[in-house]
Design brief:
This protein is 30% helix and 22% strand. By secondary structure, the protein is an alpha/beta fold. The protein has 2 domains: 6-113 and 191-297, Rossmann fold, CATH 3.40.50; 124-189, no CATH class. It has an 8-stranded mixed sheet with strand order 1-12-11-10-4-9-8-7, sandwiched between helices. β2 (36-46) and β3 (55-66) form a beta hairpin. Bound molecules: adenosine-5'-triphosphate (ATP) and magnesium ion (MG).
Length: 298
């Protein structure tokens, strides 16, 4: 388990990669064991007419690697292809070029090894909270009902919703509904958790609490996570690495290694090192950096 001390917080170090090869934080040995590997990924949207003018190139030449237990955040301008990339990893969208592999195998479509948490709470309003959490297990039909409910209760405890299983979604706040979404995603015990701006519609204070809880839950379950956000502070607080996407067609122009130990607590946000890192990421995102540079900060 990674340990956090504020004393352990260090400023980001930089290094350049003049070859433009995919940014890999842990050196060449990591490539062969990557849990998720994206190499030169290209994703297009094609209108039914298939005329050339109806093609939107959303992602092009995207390179990314995740090892097991990594927590990687993606930030980037609106419309740059973040959700598109996440949907391809989830298996909801095909890719048109490059390689996108999980444990060395192409992604054929959605599977129980991946779970997505969306921006808006997407609970079934007619089902009680606990029945929302067991929903994925029912679809998978791999578990008896009593066992599924037991697991759901454990997860509701884990996300801080003990005793709320018999409520309906409408009886919960937005933040509580997002916790149910997280519990539902974790119920199928995914190897890779995909989160698309899951806290974007939650107020700032609740969001900070949710971020800390997400870190706690991921550590408790040893989850690998790919998390999309517009909030740089959120990305720096959560991630081992923050990947900055270029404007569309999206690709990763810079990968920032977050050097702070875990577990992280709220005081980290106020440390000068943390604020400097946030500034560094913001500079990359908004500061007119050459999007073809392919630089990695360590
Ligand atoms: N279903 C679709 N059909 C056609 N084009 C699409 C579709 N979905 C997205 N796009 C286009 O693909 C590009 C990338 O969209 P995407 O939703 O991936 O962006 P994003 O980075 O997630 O943006 P945001 O930060 O605003 O959520 C945009 O130009 C968008 O218009
Ligand atoms: Mg999006």
């Amino acid at each position: 388990m990674r340990k956090q001390t504020l004393e352990g917080a260090q400023p980001a170090r930089r290094s350049s990669d003049p070859t433009g090869s995919p940014p890999v934080a842990d050196g060449p040995a990591a490539a062969s064991t990557a849990h998720l590997s994206a190499r030169n990924v290209r994703i297009e949207y094609r209108a039914p007419s298939e005329s050339a003018s109806d093609v939107t190139l959303a992602v092009d030449n995207a390179n990314l690697e995740l090892q097991r237990s990594d927590f990687v955040c993606i930030v980037g301008p609106s419309g740059c292809g973040k959700t598109t990339f996440l949907n391809a990893v989830a298996g909801f969208l095909p890719i048109q070029g490059g390689n996108l592999e999980l444990d060395g195998r192409d992604i054929p479509g959605p599977g129980p090894d991946r779970a997505m948490v969306f921006q808006q709470a997407s609970l079934l309003p007619w089902r009680k909270v606990i029945d929302n959490v067991t929903y994925g297990l029912e679809l998978g039909r791999t578990m008896k009902k009593a066992q599924a409910r037991e697991r759901a209760r454990e997860l509701l405890d884990l996300v801080g919703l003990s005793g709320f299983g018999d409520r309906y979604p409408a009886q919960l706040s937005g933040g509580m509904q997002q916790r149910v979404n997280l519990a539902r995603a974790l119920a199928v015990e995914p190897e890779l958790l995909l989160l698309d701006e899951p806290f974007a519609s939650i107020d700032a204070q609740t969001r900070e609490t949710m971020q800390a809880e997400l870190l706690r839950v991921c550590a408790a379950r040893d989850v690998t996570a790919l998390f999309v956000t517009h909030d740089i502070t959120e990305a720096a607080f959560l991630a081992d690495r923050v990947c900055v996407f270029s404007p569309r067609p999206g690709h990763i122009v810079r990968e920032v290694v977050v050097p702070f130990d875990r577990p992280r607590d709220q005081r980290l946000r106020r440390s000068p090192e943390f604020l400097a890192l946030v500034d560094e990421i913001a500079e990359t995102l908004y500061g007119g950096t050459d999007p073809t540079a392919g630089e990695v900060i360590h």
